[in-house]
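Q: My labmate handed me this sequence with no annotations at all. I'd like to see what the chain might look like in three dimensions before we decide whether it's worth expressing. Could you predict it?
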Amino acid sequence: MNSESSRSHLIFTLYLDLIDKDGDKVTSKVSLVDLAGSERVKATNADSEMIKEASAINQSLSCLQDVMKKLSMKETLIPYRNNKLTFYMSDCLGGNSKSLMFVNVSPSNKNSFDTQQSLVYANRVKLIKNNVFKIHENTQVKHLKTTINDLENEVIYYKQRLNENNI
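A: Here is what I predict for the chain of 167 residues:
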């Protein structure tokens, strides 16, 4: 709604690997997502390039809304692949995750419709209920992963040797 608006989504992801005193590894992922607001062409007086950007933003937000609706209804088929945004955020929304949404609302009466829509959108996030649990990687799993990695390296080594000998 203003000239400084980036008209894009921003996703910052932080990965945390923690190892406890027993040697068990716990991995966490925290994603901070700044969603661009939906844009109404009449309200922004957008030109042709801005209209394309607004259309892409609105489409991604619509796809995200579809995903949140399906998750809140506990449906089994979730349309994560309908948009790049929802595909990237799939592990942030469903399964073993917790979602939290902050909404920046305008105090101006002229933006009351947008404020209301944002709050309705945030309420959909509130309806998502996932089973959040910790996944611990024990020493047995670590050993198996190391063994698999070693075997993969051996396969690469022998393939290179075969190529060198033209076999």
